[in-house]
Amino acid sequence: MTAPPPVRPPAEPATEKATGTPGRKPPSRLLAPLRQTGQLFALALAVARAIFRRPFQVREFIEQFWFVASVTILPAALVSIPFGAVIALQVGSLTEQLGAQSFTGGASVLAVIQQASPLIVALLIAGAAGSAICADLGSRKIREELDAMEVMGVSPVQRLVVPRVLATMFVAVLLNGLVSVVGTLGGYFFNVIMQGGTPGAYLASFSALAQLPDLYVGELKALIFGFIAGIVAAYRGLNPRGGPKGVGDAVNQSVVITFMLLFAVNMVLTAIYLQIVPPKGG
Amino acid sequence: MGIEVVVEGLTKSFGKQNIWQDVSLTLPAGEVSVMLGPSGTGKTVFLKSIIGLLKPEKGRVLINGVDMVNSPERDIMETRKLFGLMFQDGALFGSMSLFDNIAFPLREHTRKKESEIRRIVMERIDVVGLLGAEGKLPGEISGGMRKRAGLARALVLDPQIILCDEPDSGLDPVRTAYLSQLLIDLNAQIDATMLIVTHNLDIAATVPDNMGMLFCRNLVTFGPREVLLTSDMPVVSQFLAGRREGPIGMSEEKDAATLAAEQTSGNGWGHAAPRTVVPQLEPSPGMPVRQAALRRRERVVSMMGQLPEAARTAIMNSYTPTLGGGRR
Questions:
Q1: Is residue B235 one of the residues assigned to a domain?
Q2: Coil, strand or helix: which one is A280?
Q3: Within its chain, how far is the Cα of A272 from the centroid?
Q4: How many Å lie between the alpha carbon of B51 and the closest alpha carbon of chain A?
Q5: B126 is in which domain, residue-wise?
Q6: How many helices (H) and strands (E) does chain B have?
Q7: Is A28 near chain B, with CB under 8 Å?
Q8: Is the dihedral of CA B314, B319, B324, B328 positive or negative?
Q9: Where is the ABC transporter domain (chain B) (predicted)?
């Protein structure tokens, strides 16, 4: 065999022939954020539908519930004590200047139960559990595990995402109860011990200003925030962009996006609540 | 008997980059087909499009009347249960042992008792030669073992259509030969339609009934194995001979200037000695007769008139017992 001189192909790939898909205009860049938003909503809808589809993944749900709870309980309790205290001190000092010190209890309890508690819960769930969920789904995606699952006729949304979203929702609700109690106790402790408030006045103003719907709305918020945290984490995890680095970025983004969504949704919910539920003290 | 897969005018692009266009072919029911092609010509994309994981912009993939491209997601999910797909690197679930991985489709789709699941899974594990490793996690075994486990998982639901994405990559030549034999034996046993995507020449020469080749955004050809094996198209003969001279370059295509230089410099391509067609693998002794081979014979004989001369001769030889045997 005569060995021919090696003929290397050109280093540059042959210039891309203009064979791009005919008759198709590339979508405008301005619309990209809208597309992402739309896909996020589509996933939320798909999850909401798949929640009711049999068979329900009990085992996966319990595992995820346990996981989410175990990574959030302790930090939530530890964060809520100083948070309740800060609110108590701040409100206490303000009401003292106004001469309405007897209402400190009610005001700080309202702030903790309605605002602080659901937000603390959601931030912790997004930060601790959401990031883990996003990383888990993302690495499964790039290892083609999700494709394999889909090929076997099993929907990853139903099999993996639904249990995780339900877990974040229910843990958020339960955790919200814990944080509300611990936060309120923290506020009580600091108001009574540090600021010399009287226990009787604290409790009396508590029942004068606070009402049960305040607790309900706190729990509802926690439920919605848990849903948002779960959906955003799942969405970013299911769509990582290119390789392991993409998974890292996706985790980062999922936490940031969740935080931003939380505060926006919280504002809307609070505004609606203040409109439709009459204040008790009024 | 397997199910026919009809692909019509399939075109897929990622953004501006066109992967292939207007691919039309029919995988005959129960037969083994191989899709060849240089690296990066979208063979895996083609496989994933058939099963509906990727959505081509144009065309249809018809299986039992369901279009895997445009039908409702529910129908596609249902149809996927007919498939077994062996991924390039196994795509096993990292958090489950091999046993649980292979049992996964059974647990999801059937109401079998655990003892029966165990029996079926162990049987499949035995077939792919992984006995003793069933308790290991995918991270603890070699790439070749992961691949075989992936095959076992693809087989566990007795699929009607089996798709294999590069079954040979990461396997040594001996294991590749065993795997080729295994695929043929499987075909004899369950009579499933099979599509193997590969660039391994041994598998391509010995396993399939039909062969196709993707190159340069097009389906070069698809038909009975003899057509491709005897083809004198430059792309095909370069690929089958593994030469550097020809239209296939290190990057996807060579540019015209290099090609012209090559042709004039004397080491032209297309003058290679006529290739002989290696006989196809037969099922191991004790296996049933491959029904697909019988069906294919009828089909090929009926289309004999449309085939090129070289392919016709090769087919005649292979179907004449006195000549078909020991020729190399």
A1: no
A2: coil
A3: 20
A4: 7
A5: 5-225
A6: 13, 10
A7: no
A8: positive
A9: 5-241
Which of B251, B259, B263, B265 is the best mutation test for A, with the most CBs of A within 10 A? Answer: B251
B308 in a structural domain: no
Nearest to B249 by CA among A6, A67, A270: A6
CA B32, chain centre distance (Å): 7
Handedness of CA B153, B81, B108, B49 (dihedral sign): positive
What CATH number does residue B62 fall under? Answer: 3.40.50.300
**Could you state, in order of their start, the residue ranges of all structural domains in chain A?**
55-273
pLDDT tens over chain B, length 328 residues = 778 899 998 898 888 888 888 889 999 988 999 998 888 888 888 988 998 888 898 898 999 888 988 888 888 888 888 888 888 888 889 888 999 999 998 988 888 899 999 999 998 888 888 888 889 998 888 888 888 888 899 888 888 999 998 888 778 888 888 888 888 988 888 889 999 998 888 888 888 999 988 888 888 888 888 888 888 888 888 888 888 877 787 766 666 667 777 766 655 454 555 667 788 888 888 888 888 888 888 888 888 878 888 888 888 877 775 444 444 4
Phi, psi values for residue A166, rounded to 5°: -60, -40
Q: How many domains does the structure of chain B reveal? A: 1
- Cβ pair B16, B31 in contact under 8 A: no
Q: Residue type at B113?
A: K
Tell me what ipTM this predicted complex has: 0.77
Sequence-separated (6 or more) residues with CB below 8 Å from residue B114: none
Query: Nearest residue of A to residue B81 by CA position?
Result: A153
B83-86, strands of its sheet edge to edge = B83-86, B161-165, B193-197, B32-36, B210-215, B218-224
Amino acid present at A27: P
Question: HEC states along B193-222?
Answer: EEEEECCCHHHHHHCCCEEEEEECCEEEEE
| Pure H helices in B110-196 | 114-127, 143-155, 173-190
A22 reaches B (C-beta below 8 A): no
Taking residue B201's Cβ as centre, other Cβ atoms within 10 Å add up to 15
Q: Which of B92, B195, B107 is nearest to B149 (CA)?
A: B92
Asked whether the beta carbons of A226 and A174 are under 8 A apart, the reply is no
SS3 content of chain B, % helix, strand, coil (to 5): 40, 20, 40
**CA-to-CA separations, B257 to A125, A140, B49, B247, B253, in angstroms, rounded:** 61, 45, 35, 11, 12
Residue A215's Cβ-count burial label (10 Å; 0-12, 13-18, 19+) is middle
Tell me whether residues A9 and B251 touch, CB distance under 8 A.
Answer: yes
Structure tokens at A152: 């076997």
Query: HSE (CB half, 13 Å, CA atoms) of B225?
Result: 28
Neighboring chain A residues of B87 at a CB cutoff of 8 Å: 144, 147-148
- The pTM is what? 0.80
d(C-alpha B252, C-alpha B245), whole Å? 14
